[in-house]
Write a structure and sequence with these properties.
Radius of gyration: 19 Å
Helix content: under 10%
Largest sheet: 7 strands, mixed
Distance between the termini: 11 Å
Order of helices and strands: EHEEEEEEEHEEEEEEEHEEE
Strand content: 25-35%
Shape: globular
Number of helices: 3
Number of strands: 18
């Protein structure tokens, strides 16, 4: 199936334009886009298997082949608990999926759940501000990758170039589905609620070396992904230069193994590349400028414009998942339809 594109500019559903509505907006956007299609774009072939409790409840989606299932459960306004399984037999009283190899986090028995944390996801920092977050989604029948960007003030162009923490800390990206090697995963986890990065907190349910499912009671070996980049306490410099021939690399997921199982790669997170040589100290719009992606709207850009899909010099599209603060040392990352990561 072709890669489907969904953006805030063409979205035909409704989102909750206020702070602290992570679960509600995940449900509205994921179900609308992946399951039903949106804004003239066809559905990506996913199924809505379970939907109880509305915006503060639980929903479960599965890929087209129904060979893995992802459960999203409301914890509070800024936190969603995610679990993953190879089959779907229901949801327990704790909001965890019930099924083969069911897992939430690395520890066995759901002892340390996988949590998504985002105070400002897709939307403005307050319902009265009139500000909206920008977001882009690329998805096919097996994978979904999301980036978004938002600032704490409605600033345009050069006015965006500020090191104020509220201006540089809201944004990020997450992914769920199969890696390039075919392993189901959920990625994106951060204990602060300002940014989510797809290389942080990758959850899988297979042993990479054997390809076998791990029992739910097993503690999984450590899984790592992505690389760190140069950073400081916040964005504080511009870029009047362009990086030429900059290497954008896949975000590989690697399982370290333990005494019982071997170490091996689980493939790359589909839809994402990282730019480890782009300094996090650059102001957000200057990241795009340095990569030659700012284009004609550099002087009129808003925070929601950072995560628009733009055509790179290789002919593929890229959308920036804003990561411009020392609160994370992870490399800058971009959503892309480059087939190297699909």
């Amino acid at each position: 199936m072709a890669i489907r594109t969904y953006t805030h500019e063409t979205f035909s559903g409704s989102v909750l334009y206020s702070v602290n509505n992570l679960q509600g907006n995940l449900r509205r956007v994921i179900a609308e886009c992946l399951v039903n299609g949106s804004g003239g774009e066809l559905a990506a072939g996913w199924h809505l298997e379970y939907d109880v409790g509305g915006d503060t409840g639980t929903f479960v989606v599965s890929n087209a082949a129904r060979d893995f299932f992802v459960c999203f459960n409301y914890v509070n306004g800024t936190t969603t608990k995610v679990s993953l399984a190879a089959s779907f037999e229901g949801v327990d009283s704790g909001g965890f999926i019930v099924g083969e190899a069911a897992r939430s986090g690395r520890e066995g028995g759901f002892a340390s759940p996988h949590l998504l944390n985002a105070q400002n996801f897709l939307v403005a920092t307050s319902s009265s501000s009139g500000r909206q977050g920008g977001w882009s989604i690329l998805a096919d029948e097996d994978s979904c990758a999301i980036v978004w960007s938002i600032g704490s003030s409605e600033l345009v162009g050069a006015a965006m170039d500020t090191s104020a923490s509220g201006m540089v800390r809201y944004g990020g990206g997450l992914s769920f589905g199969k890696t390039t090697a075919g392993y189901p995963h959920v990625s994106g986890h951060m204990l602060t609620n300002y940014q989510i990065h797809p290389a942080v907190g990758v959850m899988v349910m297979h042993y990479a070396a054997s390809g076998l499912l791990a029992p739910s009671a097993d503690t999984m070996p450590v899984v790592g992904a992505g690389v760190d980049a140069a950073h400081s306490g916040g964005a504080n410099t511009g870029a009047d230069f362009v990086y030429e021939d900059l290497l954008l690399t896949p975000i590989e997921v690697y399982q370290q193994g333990n005494a019982a199982v071997g170490a091996a790669s689980l493939g790359a997170i589909r839809g994402f590349v990282q730019a480890p040589h782009v300094d996090l100290r650059l102001y957000p719009r200057h990241i795009l400028n340095a990569l030659g992606m700012a284009g004609a709207d550099f002087d009129t850009m808003r925070y929601q414009d950072l995560s628009k899909l733009r055509v790179g010099d290789d002919g593929y599209r890229y959308a920036y998942g804003k990561q411009t603060s020392g609160m994370t040392a992870q490399a800058q990352m971009f959503l892309t339809d480059n087939p190297a990561v699909w």
